[in-house]
Design a protein that fits this description.
By secondary structure, the protein is α+β, with helices and mostly antiparallel strands. Helices cover 22% and strands 31% of the residues. It has helices at 5-8, 29-36, 58-68, 85-94, 106-118, 154-158, 233-242, 288-301; strands spanning 11-13, 20-22, 42-47, 50-55, 76-79, 99-103, 124-127, 140-145, 160-170, 173-181, 184-193, 200-201, 220-222, 247-250, 258-261, 267-272, 278-283, 310-315, 318-323, 331-333, 342-343. Strand 3 and strand 4 (50-55) form a beta hairpin. The longest helix is centred in the C-terminal third of the chain and has 14 residues, at 288-301.
Length: 347
């Protein structure tokens, strides 16, 4: 049987202008139906201009389900209910009695429960903090997160059955972790990227440097530009792993006009130069573009590794991403999650 995606996405918002496309109206119906069966992520919930829930592109869902490798009678916890489409696919394969889906949004969980029931699926739908798992239905053989994580929650390992697997987005990649015991897990990243909204949380307040008091460095020339770094798919994964708190944006109309920011008072700004190189201006306590240049050198020295050469290990007190092997000299600890709470919010 085929899971009817359209029944679980009665309306969505266009990604370019947030216009609502309502499948129940005659004017929107054909556009809505085409979108429902396209291989595209559909925005299904927003708060002003912030996306709060979506339906992941079906091709990516299929890829994650293949990596999950479910077998008959497996019990699955899906974190980030979204539209319910992923939960429905799991129900179709395993039976509703083996599927639990959790999300922080009570109205979303209620509406999705109704939608799933209308097409014959009745998984256990829980309103709750996805990072805490769901002890009443543990142990789980599989965990599937359709929202991005900074770290693997300890609760998932403690609720894992022997031989359990976790598939989740981390560092804009997709990790497939095999759980060894309640304290240890290890696995490799899939070749494909995984771009998901994060687990929702209450923002904590940290002390940061005041960028207004930082003095910019004198501009210097560099031959390494945005297209060689943040627009290079495989290198960008390493940059995301090694610089987890650094964001990237444009400060002008050109893709070559880049600014990166660590949200603690340090920035690096790139501007084009007449001689074909780039001018770098760094501000704050960190020389951010210098760090990017060093990572580029490492990436080149290691034969330009792609995502599947990286892996993740979980042990008591430490979670780290490594290149080629867990004991590699090239390893990066995942940052501690200092947020007061983590909550699942997106498929």
């Amino acid at each position: 049987a085929t899971v009817p995606r359209h029944a679980l996405v009665p309306r969505y918002y266009r990604s370019d202008n947030y216009q609502e496309i309502d499948g129940t109206t005659e004017d929107d119906h054909s556009t809505w139906l085409r979108a429902a069966y396209s291989d595209e992520t559909l925005i299904t919930q927003k708060s002003r201009y912030t996306v709060t829930s979506s339906g992941t592109m079906p091709g990516l869902v299929a890829l994650m389900l293949r990596a999950l490798d479910v077998h008959d009678d497996h019990r699955v916890l899906q974190i980030g209910t979204g539209t319910g489409y992923t939960a429905a696919l799991l129900c179709e394969r395993l039976g509703s009695q083996h599927v639990t889906t959790i999300d922080i949004d009570p109205e979303l969980v209620r509406a999705v429960g109704i939608g799933l029931a209308s097409v014959g699926y009745q998984p256990t739908a829980i309103v709750g903090n996805g990072a805490h798992g769901h002890p009443p239905h543990a142990p789980f053989d599989r965990f599937l997160a359709t929202c991005s994580l900074r770290r693997i929650p300890a609760a998932w390992l403690s609720q894992a059955a022997p031989g359990a697997r976790i598939v989740a987005p981390i560092a804009k990649g997709l990790i497939a972790l095999d759980v060894a015991d309640e304290d240890h897990a290890c696995g490799r990243f899939l070749p494909e990227g995984g771009y998901f909204m994060p687990l929702r949380h209450d923002d904590s307040v940290d002390d940061i440097d005041d960028p207004a008091t930082a003095t910019p460095t004198a501009p210097r020339h560099t031959s390494l530009g945005p297209r060689d770094t943040f627009y290079q798919q495989h290198l960008r994964f390493l940059l995301t792993v090694a610089l987890p708190d650094v964001s990237v944006g444009q400060h002008g109309p050109s893709l070559d006009e880049l600014i990166i920011d660590d949200h603690a008072g340090s920035t690096a700004r790139l501007d084009t130069s007449d001689d074909g190189t780039f001018l770098v201006t760094e501000t704050g306590s960190r020389a951010l573009w210098t760090e990017v240049e060093q990572l580029h050198q490492l990436w080149q020295a290691c034969d330009q590794p792609c995502r599947e050469r990286f892996g993740l290990s979980v042990a008591p007190g430490r979670q780290w991403i490594w290149l080629d092997a867990p004991d590699s000299p090239h390893a990066w600890d995942l940052p501690p999650d200092l947020r007061r709470s983590e909550q699942a919010w997106a498929e």
